[in-house]
């Protein structure tokens, strides 16, 4: 129930009183976390995947080469939405968030395993199937060599069109790369996402 609804219902309480009692109940204001919007089929696929993988050992997961692409904004658009300031500092340069019409960004591909991280690929063009296969050739294979040496590994990728294209599947098959089955729209299952978050904090 918001403050306006309380007032219309005849509840006599100031905004400050209401906020104080809300805090007493253990509530505080936060920016909501963002999660992918999943349909019923995707929910079921994720559940099935989790059940299939729940008994995997550390040794099995250690054979997985996780990969992901992520866009980093290099303009001011990625600044946090809150600042700590004193009274009268609202217009202080250090308390303002700058904006630009066309924010600059860069797309980066990276891979990691339990043994560490591989080299990053900075992308200057849209990731089409041919571009993605170049990434696999020059960065994924070198990451696998670095992290697994001569040991077998399983490659993880999401279901982006360039990843699931027929030509990409043929490339992976021709190079003897096994692919981990992966539920759609599930970035939260990929530990590489946590590394991106840490990178953004630098």
Automatic annotation (TrEMBL):
<dbReference type="InterPro" id="IPR052338">
    <property type="entry name" value="Transposase_5"/>
</dbReference>
<dbReference type="InterPro" id="IPR002492">
    <property type="entry name" value="Transposase_Tc1-like"/>
</dbReference>
<dbReference type="InterPro" id="IPR038717">
    <property type="entry name" value="Tc1-like_DDE_dom"/>
</dbReference>
<dbReference type="GO" id="GO:0015074">
    <property type="term" value="P:DNA integration"/>
</dbReference>
<feature type="domain" description="Tc1-like transposase DDE">
    <location>
        <begin position="64"/>
        <end position="196"/>
    </location>
</feature>
<dbReference type="GO" id="GO:0003677">
    <property type="term" value="F:DNA binding"/>
</dbReference>
<dbReference type="GO" id="GO:0006313">
    <property type="term" value="P:DNA transposition"/>
</dbReference>
<dbReference type="Pfam" id="PF01498">
    <property type="entry name" value="HTH_Tnp_Tc3_2"/>
</dbReference>
<protein>
    <recommendedName>
        <fullName>Transposase Tc1-like domain-containing protein</fullName>
    </recommendedName>
</protein>
<dbReference type="Pfam" id="PF13358">
    <property type="entry name" value="DDE_3"/>
</dbReference>
<dbReference type="InterPro" id="IPR036397">
    <property type="entry name" value="RNaseH_sf"/>
</dbReference>
<feature type="domain" description="Transposase Tc1-like">
    <location>
        <begin position="5"/>
        <end position="54"/>
    </location>
</feature>
């Amino acid at each position: 129930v918001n403050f306006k609804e309380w007032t219309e219902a005849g509840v006599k309480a100031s905004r400050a009183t209401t906020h104080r009692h809300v805090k007493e109940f253990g509530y505080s204001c936060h920016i909501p976390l963002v999660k992918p919007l999943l349909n019923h089929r995707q929910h079921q696929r994720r559940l099935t995947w989790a059940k299939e993988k729940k008994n995997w050992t550390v040794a099995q997961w250690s054979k997985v080469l996780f990969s992901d692409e992520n866009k980093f904004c290099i303009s001011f658009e990625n600044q946090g939405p809150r600042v700590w300031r004193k009274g009268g500092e609202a217009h202080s340069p250090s308390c303002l968030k700058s904006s630009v019409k066309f924010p600059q960004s860069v797309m980066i591909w990276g891979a990691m395993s339990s043994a560490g991280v591989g080299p990053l690929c900075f992308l200057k063009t849209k990731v089409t199937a041919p571009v993605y296969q170049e990434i696999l050739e020059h960065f994924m294979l070198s990451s696998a060599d670095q992290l697994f040496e001569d040991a077998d590994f399983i490659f993880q990728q999401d279901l982006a069109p360039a990843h699931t294209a027929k030509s990409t599947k043929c490339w992976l098959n021709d190079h003897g790369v096994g692919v981990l089955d992966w539920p759609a729209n599930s970035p939260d299952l990929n530990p590489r996402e946590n590394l991106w978050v840490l990178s953004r904090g630098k």
